[in-house]
């Protein structure tokens, strides 16, 4: 299974250059389908918020600081884990075939990493194993639980649609409670708690 599930991450064309890369936040959120480019975590299951990672670190490529095609929508944890890591130390070389990175907005990303049926992430190649174990430490994080939470929330949303057509008092209460819970999640997310 793909890290990002059924969605394909692609950066849109025709983005006007901004003076500050933070101004791309909304575009990136949409292009990355409201999930982390690296681990696939959905916005709804985090309270720490999402950030913008410079795929090729600013320290190596300051000229790409506001280059939309060098930006990755990233969860707080993946952004901190990757930080300024760039094993090749050459801004033009993502990896050496053994260590380094693959841009998550490319089809090549799926050749190196995949999601197991239990939701955990596995490296398929040396580069994938480096990203999984050394760079992002997917094997030491609750990746499986985050994926499971996302899946349960998706199923819950589908169930809410079915319950809404039944119209007993309990289903209305269930829907209201879940809406309140989602609003709280959004509040915590916006406060980066």
Automatic annotation (TrEMBL):
Any Pfam family the entry gives: HNH
HNH nuclease domain mapped to chain residues: 23-80
Domain of life: Bacteria
Gene Ontology molecular function terms on file: endonuclease activity; nucleic acid binding; zinc ion binding
Matches recorded under InterPro entries: HNH (IPR002711), HNH_nuc (IPR003615)
CDD domains: HNHc (cd00085)
Name the record gives this protein: TIGR02646 family protein
Source organism of the structure: Propionispora vibrioides
């Amino acid at each position: 299974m793909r890290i990002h599930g059924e969605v394909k991450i692609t950066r849109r064309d025709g983005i006007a250059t901004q003076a500050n890369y933070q101004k791309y936040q909304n575009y990136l959120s949409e292009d990355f389908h409201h999930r982390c480019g690296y681990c696939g975590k959905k916005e709804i299951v985090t309270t720490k918020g999402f950030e913008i990672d410079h795929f090729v670190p600013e320290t190596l490529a300051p000229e790409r600081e506001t280059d939309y095609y060098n930006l990755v929508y990233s969860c707080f944890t993946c952004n901190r884990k990757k930080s300024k890591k760039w094993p090749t130390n050459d801004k033009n070389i993502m990896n050496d075939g053994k260590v380094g990175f693959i841009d998550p907005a490319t089809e090549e990303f799926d050749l190196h990493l995949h999601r197991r049926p239990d939701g955990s992430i596995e490296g398929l190649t040396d580069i994938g194993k480096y990203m999984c174990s050394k760079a992002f430490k997917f094997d030491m994080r609750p990746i499986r639980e985050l994926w499971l939470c996302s899946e349960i929330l998706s199923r819950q949303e589908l169930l809410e649609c079915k319950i809404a057509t039944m119209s007993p008092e309990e289903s209305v209460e269930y829907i209201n409670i879940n809406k309140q819970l989602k609003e709280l999640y959004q509040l915590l997310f916006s406060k980066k708690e």
